Amino acid sequence: MNIDTRLLKNEERAVFALRSLYEKYGYAQYKMGKFEEYDLYVRNKDFLVSDHIITFTDTNGKLMALKPDVTLSIIKNSKDTEKHIQKVYYNENVYRVSKSTDSYREIMQTGLECIGAIDDYCIYEVLSLAAESLKVISEDFVLDISHMGIVSKLISGLDLSIDDEKEFIKCLGEKNAHQIAEICRMAECDDETKDKILSLVTLYGSGKDVIEKLKGKFMNECSEEIGQLEMLISLLESAGFSDKIHIDFSVTNNLGYYNGIVFKGFVNGIFEEILSGGQYDKLMKKMNRKSRAIGFAVYADTLERLGETKREFDVDTIILYDETSDISMLNDAVKMMTSAGKSVMAQKQIPSKIKYRQLLKLNEKGVEMLENNA
């Protein structure tokens, strides 16, 4: 059966296209239940997009939660291996507070996870699929990339508490240079270190430009991370994404969970990210896994804010009939039109506030045209 994609919402069209994209690269669909034990999310609450969780008590007395996240469930239920790579994608509903409505919603979320013996190719593949995912949604997109390894090395000498480290990451994400300077002052770091850290706030731009600035300032401390970024940017540019890739150190994630490449995707017309991901080896370790992992999620609920293509008519044809009409004749008329690819509504009266292309009436001879708005 062919699906008329014109009838689908933006997020539904995107899900169909993304599923096809991921399967081309060998990602298998991962299916899961709607809830997990609440303890899984409590132990990893800082990893979640939202810490608002809907809970209930199961018949056995266990406290359960409607799933607010997919990644944690995949890690929990996947095999722990360092020998090969598990590639999965998902299209699942999660239950959390939506940024757009500030209330609980059932949110359609799609994405992928690459778990196991992760190497630079795996990281590149995930980044390229993130870019391709954004392209599916809109040609007018940007993928912003950062490296938590560089951030971690630069602040490692500050001896920050866990709370101060979280505050630093929050300020970097907000490009709050004043508060970062205050954190450096409280940590009594030297002027050279402070200047280097503050320079992260303003580092933004195309890959090659930022890479050269990184080499000039941080090569001694972060040569390995800069080399990896340069290689990944070069591959992405070779794949045709030169004008779509930026390096931006305001793209951050919790240092307790993320350790390497992190990234966010944006499309024109939506003010917040619609895609977010990164390498989360530290989360794997926290969950007693030896595997490494990288993945991303596409937040389908944000796509509702992209301009929907408005249909000129709600239905192609309305066929009016009454109590005396021949039901068999009516059925034949409806079947004939739907077989021709038209949408048809059989009604005894014209519904209010409905736009139709043509209005027909069934009589003993067949159907007659009453109105044609084509």
Task: List descriptors.
single chain; 374 residues; alpha+beta; 9-stranded mixed β-sheet; 4-stranded mixed β-sheet; 38% helix; elongated; disordered N terminus
Topology at a glance:
Blueprint: H1 10-24, E1 28-29, E2 35-37, H2 38-42, E3 55-57, E4 63-66, H3 71-77, E5 85-97, E6 104-116, H4 120-137, E7 141-147, H5 148-155, H6 162-173, H7 177-186, H8 191-202, E8 204-206, H9 207-241, E9 245-248, E10 261-267, E11 275-279, H10 281-286, E12 292-299, E13 315-320, H11 327-339, E14 344-347, E15 356-363, E16 366-372
Helix pairs in contact: 1-4, 4-9, 5-9, 6-7, 7-8
Describe the structure.
- The protein is an alpha+beta fold.
- The protein is built from eleven helices and 16 strands.
- It has a nine-stranded mixed beta sheet, with helices on both faces.
- Strand 10 (261-267) and strand 11 (275-279) form a beta hairpin.
- The protein is elongated and about 95 Å long.
- The model is unreliable at 1-8 (pLDDT under 50).
Q: Cα distance, first to last residue?
A: 27 Å
Indicate the low-confidence ranges by residue numbers: 1-8
Strand composition percent: 25-35%
Number of helices in the DSSP assignment: 11
What does the radius of gyration come to?
26 Å
Share of residues in helices: 25-40%
Number of E strands = 16
Structural class: alpha+beta
Tell me, rounded to a whole number, the average pLDDT: 86
Oligomer: single chain
Principal-axis shape equals elongated
The largest beta-sheet arranges its strands as 1-5-6-12-11-10-7-9-8
What is the H/E order? Answer: HEEHEEHEEHEHHHHEHEEEHEEHEEE
Main β-sheet, in a few words?
Answer: 9 strands, mixed
